[in-house]
Amino acid sequence: MSDSAKHIRRAWKAVYRRFRELRMIARGLASRDHPVLAHVIPMRRCNLSCTYCNEYDDHSKPVPVETMYQRLDHLAELGTTVITISGGEPLLHPDLDLLIAHIRRRGMIAGMITNGYLLTADRIRRLNRAGLDHLQISIDNVQPDDVSKKSLKVLDRKLQLLAEHADFHVNINSVVGGGIRSPKDALVVGKRALELGFTSTVGIIHDGDGQLQPLGGDEREVYLAMRAMEKSSYARINGFQDNIAHGKENDWRCRAGSRYLYICEDGLVHYCSQQRGYPGKPLSQYTLNDVRREYRTAKSCAPRCTVACVHQVSQIDFWRGKQDLTPNAVQEQPQGLVQIQ
User: Fold this and answer.
1) Which alpha helices (H) appear in 196-330, and where do they start and end?
2) Cα-to-chain-centroid distance, residue 180
3) How far apart are CA 62 and CA 38, in angstroms?
4) SS3 45
5) Each residue of 75-114: pLDDT tens digit?
6) What is the DSSP string of 82-99?
7) Sign (positive or negative) of CA dihedral 337, 338, 340, 341
8) Residues contacting residue 158 through CB under 8 Å, at least 6 positions apart
9) Chain center to CA of 126
10) Cα distance between residue 308 and residue 314, in whole Å
C-alpha cells in the first residue's frame, strides 16, 4: 500500500474514532446510569516484573475466551462505552484478537495497555484487523535497570513498528516518581513519542497502596516540562496530577464502581487496580442498582489517589451527583432499591 493510501486510511479511521468518542461523552453527559469505562483483566501473568507494580504474577493462566465473552456481554448490557484490556500483559492471551473483535461487535470502544515487548509487525496488523481503537505503552526509563525493563532502548524498535503499521491511536506514557532513577528520562521518552507521531502523557507512579507520594525537586521540574508537551485535551483531563506532583490532595468525587469498573481475572468488580476487594461483587451479579449506589458512595482513598483513568472518567460528573453514602453503608433490597442503614 502506498504512503498516501495509508495516510488516507488512517485519517478516516481517526475521524470515525473521534466521532465515536464524542458520542461516548455526549451519552455520559446525558445519563449517569451506565459505566463509561471498564478495565478488564483477561491475563494476570506478565513477562516482566517491574518492582513498583502490584498488578501481575508469573503463573496465571489466561481467562477462557467464552468466560471473557460473557463478561464483555454483561458490561455491554450495563451500557459500558469503553473497554480497556489490561493485565498482567494482555498480549500473552492467546485469544486477545477475538476479545477485541467482540468488544467492537458489541458497539464499545476497544483499548489496551501493554508493555509492548511482544509487538511485531504481524501482531500490529492483527490488532488492526481486530478493530483496536487505542493502545498505551508506559516507558519508564531510557536504559533498563533493576526497577523496570520498560525502557526506550528496548522498545524503540517496537515504537517504530507501531508508527509504520498501526491504524489505532497510540499514546506513550512517561513516568516520574516511584523510584525511577533518572526523572529526565521521561523527557527523552516523550520527545521520541512525538517524533513518531504519537501522543505523549506523563504519569506519577503511586506507592504500593495506590496513593500519592510527593515528587522531589528534579521530578517536579521534569513533570512540568512533560505537561507542557501534552496536547491541550490531555492537559485538561490530567490537571489533577498538578496537585499530586506537589503532594497535595485532590477534592473530587470518585465514581469508581459506577462510571469506572475494574474487573479482575476472577470476574469480580473492584473500585480500581489499587483497591481490589471493594465492592468485590461478581460482575455477573452487578446491576444498575450497584452502579447507582457506587455513584453516590464517597471513597476515603480518593483525596490521595493517583489512578489516572478513574480521575479522568469521573470528570464527566464533576459538577453533579452529590456523594452522600459511605462504603458498606448501603444494602440492596429485594425490590432493587438502595436503603441507607
Assistant:
1) 217-229, 232-237, 240-245, 288-296, 308-314
2) 21
3) 19
4) strand
5) 999 999 999 999 999 999 999 999 999 999 999 999 999 9
6) EEEE-SS-GGG-TTHHHH
7) positive
8) 116, 117, 119, 137
9) 21
10) 10
